[in-house]
Amino acid sequence: MKFGTVLRSPLVHFFLLGGAIFALYDGLNPADTSRNADTVLHLTPQQARGLAGQFSATWNRPPTATEMETVMQNWALEEAMVREARLLGLDQDDSVIRNRLRQKMLFLAEAPAATATPEDQVLLAFYEENAARFTRPARLSFQQVLLPPDAGKGDTQAMLAALEAGAPPSQIGQTSLLPQTIEALDVLGVDRVFGAGTGDAISRLPVGAWSGPVQSGYGYHLVRLAALTPPALPPLDDVRDRVLSEWRTVQMREVQERFSEAVLDRYTIELPQVQEVLGQ
């Protein structure tokens, strides 16, 4: 193989680049006997059991002896890389690392609130103060007929009269893929099917009679509202898990706020003027 061909080989470029990186690394971090204490990668049995637990959680089985050896070797490589990266200052001014450290601090602060169990009186008070969150929305049951786009007032009245006289809805109006009968669907659910505002419009119709036309995202409909179940607050026991989850979320948010304030109180904050930053 010619020397020029060798120089053009991507593999040679890789080794040259790698050599340059290691040369830079050695220049920035010359051998220092004071670092000996930092060159021991010691994994405790407790830490190793934690790694085994992570493996089990991922693969739904414990690791084999060979797999565990690989897991521990990977830990050693990761630990070595992290230490050397810190020596090079690679953790400085890295927004991803900074955000992760901030998240871990907040996680440590909020962890007790995430699993706290309040007394029944506290949970009941939260449930009553936030009743709107847990109130089940009104539910609609109805039949609908989509009018042809060219239906005039006379046509609409004729179809309405036919429906009131007992004509099958499937034989009236325009054929479409829309469901002709809706059972116990809340207003937002109706809006998702027929378009924004349709559920509210149907909820205002008289129960038991054909009415309309009602406009939707697909055109105009004749509608028979069969039943309207009003909004209702379910008993606490029926939604206890949800109430507890939301109570914990509120507690975690409050803990985050108090913890953040306490951390900032340990520092003197010096910030430039906004006008100076924005050049105003």
Automatic annotation (TrEMBL):
<dbReference type="GO" id="GO:0003755">
    <property type="term" value="F:peptidyl-prolyl cis-trans isomerase activity"/>
</dbReference>
<protein>
    <recommendedName>
        <fullName>Parvulin-like PPIase</fullName>
        <ecNumber>5.2.1.8</ecNumber>
    </recommendedName>
</protein>
<dbReference type="InterPro" id="IPR000297">
    <property type="entry name" value="PPIase_PpiC"/>
</dbReference>
<keyword id="KW-0697">Rotamase</keyword>
<comment type="similarity">
    <text>Belongs to the PpiC/parvulin rotamase family.</text>
</comment>
<feature type="domain" description="PpiC">
    <location>
        <begin position="118"/>
        <end position="241"/>
    </location>
</feature>
<dbReference type="InterPro" id="IPR046357">
    <property type="entry name" value="PPIase_dom_sf"/>
</dbReference>
<keyword id="KW-0413">Isomerase</keyword>
<dbReference type="Pfam" id="PF13145">
    <property type="entry name" value="Rotamase_2"/>
</dbReference>
<dbReference type="InterPro" id="IPR050245">
    <property type="entry name" value="PrsA_foldase"/>
</dbReference>
